[in-house]
Amino acid sequence: MLLLQIFSIISVCLLMLLGRWLLHSYQVINRVNEDLQAANESLERRVEERTRAFKQASHALQVEIDERKQLESQLIGAEKLASLGQMAAGIAHEINNPIGFISSNLGTLAVYFGKIQEVLEAYKAAEHQLGSPECLEVLEGVKTRLDLAFIEAEVPLLIQESRDGVARAAQIIKDLREFSRADTNPQWQWASLQRGIDSTLNIAANAVKYKADIVKHYVPLPDIECLPAQLNQVIMNLVVNAAQAIGPERGTITLRNGVQGDSVWLEISDTGTGIAPEVLPKIFDPFFTTKPVGQGTGLGLSLSYGIVQKHGGTISVRSLEGVGTTFRIELPVRQQRPEQGAVN
């Protein structure tokens, strides 16, 4: 009986010890599980952060790759334009020579035909002195058959029209050579902004004539101190942009200028589609364009902005969708020189 009691007590003690050991084990297991869960959550957070960082880096890399491709394409385009400019200057020089010959020959032809007209007038005056009616009849028949009166009136007109055409071609070539000449070391000089506007319009005529009518409201302008070739580029960009902004129906491009104090100003307006308000603040940003891919580099207005600023001027824009856009350029007549003794 005593042994049974001792056995029972020992069993109870063993059970208590086992229970405490099981409880301790359970607590240890719980702590391990909590630590594992915390480590797992931390690992998941780190994985998410790394994944997010990787996606951001991947996106940034893709953006950089796209920008590099776009820049490479634009650089290739710029090289092509530079080559075309050099070719245009060379072609203009080559064409200028035969045009000079044609112009000279037409002038000589006009002089020679004037002498022929003198002879014809002398013959006319002598007709009444011819005694033979048969001879007079033959002469009249020849004049009627050849329509001599029409030829005498038409040939001077044909010569003049040809001379006008040659003069027009010569002016285009002159403007093209001026516009496309290399400007690697530009020199500030006094030049006529008005002449630059007209010569640029002459070159851009083909891009404009099928899209819009040109309306000019000019006042006399003083010569300004500038880099003429660069200002011509600005005018070209604005005029071509104005033509491209006009829809399928023929529109109008209006040019106005004026003098304001020590500055001159030029406005180029179009009756195109206008610019959306949310786009307007971005139009001078490099590489920004609303044109389809391959139809615009996004550099024209940015370069124009830089050129105008280099001249100490301002360029601004106002636009209304469905009505049109106006660009305004203001330029100082004289460039400000650094004061003597100023630090460069």
Describe the protein in words.
It is a single chain. The chain has a domain at 191-336: Heat Shock Protein 90. The chain is 63% helix and 13% strand. A hairpin with a 2-residue loop joins strand 4 and strand 5. The strands form two sheets. The protein has a five-stranded mixed β-sheet with strand order 2-4-5-7-6, covered by helices on one side. Strands 1-3 form a two-stranded antiparallel sheet. It contains seven helices and seven strands, in the order H-H-H-E-H-H-E-E-H-E-E-H-E-E. The radius of gyration is 42 Å and the shape is rod-shaped. It has 344 residues and is an alpha+beta fold. Residues 340-344 have low confidence and may be disordered. The protein has helices spanning 2-126, 133-146, 148-180, 193-203, 205-208, 228-245, 300-310; strands spanning 189-191, 212-217, 224-226, 251-260, 263-270, 314-320, 324-332.
Topology readout:
Elements: H1 2-126, H2 133-146, H3 148-180, E1 189-191, H4 193-203, H5 205-208, E2 212-217, E3 224-226, H6 228-245, E4 251-260, E5 263-270, H7 300-310, E6 314-320, E7 324-332
Parallel strand pairs: 2-4
Antiparallel strand pairs: 1-3, 4-5, 5-7, 6-7
Helix pairs in contact: 1-3, 3-4, 4-6, 6-7
Spell out the key features of this protein.
single chain; 344 residues; alpha+beta; Heat Shock Protein 90; five-stranded mixed β-sheet; two-stranded antiparallel ribbon; 7 helices; 7 strands; 63% helix
